Amino acid sequence: MKLELINQLLESQITICYNGQTKVIDKLIIDTGAAHTIISSDIVDDLGIRFENGDQLVSAFGIGGEEYSFRKAVGSIKLGDFEIKDIKLDFGDMNDWDINGLIGLDILIGGKFIIDLGNLELVQI
């Protein structure tokens, strides 16, 4: 799968399915420093993905300090040809970043991906 180099960051997209609705989400950064994938809660609001009682609250630490999000199960996601069904993803505030989220190691390791920087590709082995 081809990656784009935007503002010196590797961008990709995923397709997310929730309650029978499907949406392609772009402007996602490939982040090998992120343990978990996180997606902007604003970008998935139209799918009905919102915080509800019983959703797990999680915190993450990074360059921007401590951030909070909620974890929710979705029907499936697709990254290129790789599909994961019934996966829990983190959703939170990404307003200050001008991106829609981060693709973290939970997906990258799960899909056994190699990042080919010479060709700007995400390759599944």
What does this structure look like?
- The chain is mostly beta strands and 125 residues long.
- It has one domain (4-124): Acid Proteases (Cathepsin D, subunit A, domain 1, Beta Barrel).
- It has one helix spanning 105-110, and strands at residues 4-6, 9-18, 21-30, 38-40, 56-62, 65-79, 82-92, 101-103, 113-116, 121-124.
- The strands form 2 sheets. The chain has a 6-stranded mixed β-barrel with strand order 2-3-8-4-7-6. The protein has a two-stranded antiparallel sheet with strand order 9-10.
Overview in brief:
The chain is 5% helix and 56% strand.
Which key features would you list for this structure?
six-stranded mixed β-barrel; 56% strand; 125 residues; two-stranded antiparallel sheet; 10 strands; Cathepsin D, subunit A, domain 1; mainly beta
- Rounded to the nearest angstrom, the radius of gyration is 14 Å
Q: Order of strands across the biggest sheet?
A: 2-3-8-4-7-6
Instruction: Specify the overall morphology.
Output: globular
Number of domains: 1
Helix proportion range: under 10%
User: How is the quaternary structure best described?
Assistant: single chain
CATH architecture annotation: Beta Barrel
SS elements, strand count: 10
Uncertain regions spanning at least 5 consecutive residues: none
Return the string of H and E elements: EEEEEEEEHEE
Per the CATH scheme, the topology name is Cathepsin D, subunit A, domain 1
Work out the helix count: 1
Could you outline the blueprint of secondary structure elements for this entry?
Layout: E1 4-6, E2 9-18, E3 21-30, E4 38-40, E5 56-62, E6 65-79, E7 82-92, E8 101-103, H1 105-110, E9 113-116, E10 121-124
Parallel strand pairs: 3-8, 4-7
Antiparallel strand pairs: 1-2, 2-3, 2-6, 4-8, 5-6, 6-7, 9-10
